[in-house]
Amino acid sequence: MDRIRRNERLAAMTRILVESPNKILTLGTFCEMFGAAKSTLSEDIDILRGVFAQFHLGQLDTVTGAAGGVRYRPVPSAEDAHLWVKELAQMLSTPDRLLPGGFIYMADILAMPEQVERMGAVIAAQYYRAEPDFVLTMETKGIPIAMMTAKMLGVPMVIVRRDSKVYEGPAVNINYLSGSGGRVETMSLSRRAVKEGQRALIIDDFMRAGGTARGMVDMMREFSVTVVGVCVLAATQEPVRKRIDGVKSLLVIEGADENSSTISIRPSAWLTSAAEKSKA
Predict the structure, then answer these.
(1) ∠52-34-39 over CA atoms, to 5°?
(2) Is 114:180 a contact under the CB 8 Å cutoff?
(3) What is the pLDDT of residues 35-56, one digit of tens each?
(4) Residue 1 domain-assigned?
(5) 138 forms bridges with which residues in the sheet?
(6) 44 & 18 share domain
(7) CA within 20 to 30 Å of 155's CA: 3, 24, 51, 193, which one?
(8) Mean pLDDT over residues 254-270, rounded?
């Protein structure tokens, strides 16, 4: 093999790290790949760490220990995260998105890979320390956000169904009270989907009263799984008291008036507060 130059190593390492978020890659792996000494690769990693930090491209951490190596986390700066979510709020605030019943049309946004990838990066950054084993969501609109969040966390995604599927084998079914309509509904999860003692991060696209999120928490209790957090793309400001506490949302829907065709959406307070602190 021809000698690999540093600029070639840096380009290849960047691609490999960015495509494997939150996964520890050992220096030995890179040594074998590039035929370089660990000391040389350590210098390369220092260069990449500085570049990533300078251009707000995420964090590059060195993990010590026998199973240590280097790990990339696509953590946006507080200011960038707030700016992205603010732009998203503006996109969703146009009058033509207002649907009967005060709902807001978001399907096109959830079909834009670039937008959903940003959502996943912002959400995942809040839960790296919680170390979830998987991301849980309810079919169907929450799937794109959950998938991107799972990618950023480097863990699998698990989907709760509204009814059991034959091809998923034996399942656990529970009833829950829908937050939007106050109806008793059913959700189902395959017994093989998760294991006892694991840690789950629950993701959904929208929350009004929190009934669905509460149902997913109850489902995890049936599997003896610890819920490390619940996060949604958008939550309504009313009702103030939800059926579940401690939920984070990227957006707060303050109001949607069908008569005046107006929608008021803003970034959540925790995003605004973090951005203000970073500027201080």
Answers:
(1) 65
(2) no
(3) 999 999 999 999 999 999 999 9
(4) no
(5) 160
(6) yes
(7) 51
(8) 89
Residue type, 158: V
- Indicate if 63 and 97 belong to the same structural domain: no
Domain tally for the chain? 2
Burial 25-53 (b: 16+ CB within 10 A, else e): bebeebeeebebeeebbeebbeebbeebe
Last residue of a domain, one of 73, 92, 111: 73
Same domain, 39 and 92: no
Which residue range(s) make up the domain with 14?
A: 6-73
122 and 254 share a domain? yes
User: Is 0.90 topped by the overall pTM?
Assistant: yes
